Amino acid sequence: MSHPRVLLADDHTLVLEGFRLLLEEHCELVGTAEDGRALLEAAERLQPELVLLDISMPRLNGIDAARMLKKQFPDMKFIFVTMHADPSYVNEAFKAGASGYLLKRSAAQELVQAIQSVMKGDYYVTPLITKDVISTFLTMGRPRIPAADDLTARQREILQLVAEGYSAKEIASQLQLSHRTIEFHKAKIMELLNLHTTADLVKYAVAHGLVTAS
């Protein structure tokens, strides 16, 4: 099998360097990105075959970044390498277009195995969480609580930026929207998630992996 063209995305430089050392014999590493917005730009410019990415990244989380890129580049493949072991994250990642899901505590050789599987057209989920993923099917009858997936992609973008401490004016500037539109979305997010303060939004975003706790 020829070496796949791979783009690496993680907001920790040491993690990126670890990926580089592990994969340089197995892949053609075309670039790196340290936040979700940079990932979108790099993927469009470099058009890799495969993206290795984290979920929690600044400015735009990995799941929403993957969802956007999958629409633009349907053949692009994504493997998430993250600390989030909860089955809900696995579910969201695959709904966004993932082909693989590993934990950062997975064995190093498992990443190479996952890449080989994905490039053959298969899916890969680390055995560390496979049991938990299966168990979610046993609890599907339980009452459902509001989740980040209930929000639109735009609302998730705004939720993440609010949680990262940006003001409505700053978010409006970044997303090229009006201040009033941002405030409308923020109010709608609170309504959908049954939250009442900006602090509640921050706690929710941290709990659901949209941002990392400082």
TrEMBL record:
Domain (HTH luxR-type): residue spans on this chain: 144-209
One Pfam short name: Response_reg
Keyword match Iron: no
This protein's UniProt keywords: DNA-binding, Phosphoprotein, Transcription, Transcription regulation
Positions carrying 4-aspartylphosphate: 54
Transmembrane residue ranges: none
Annotated Response regulatory domain residues: 5-119
Record-level GO BP terms: phosphorelay signal transduction system; regulation of DNA-templated transcription
MF (Gene Ontology): DNA binding
Name of the protein: Response regulator, LuxR family
Protein species of origin: Nitrospira moscoviensis
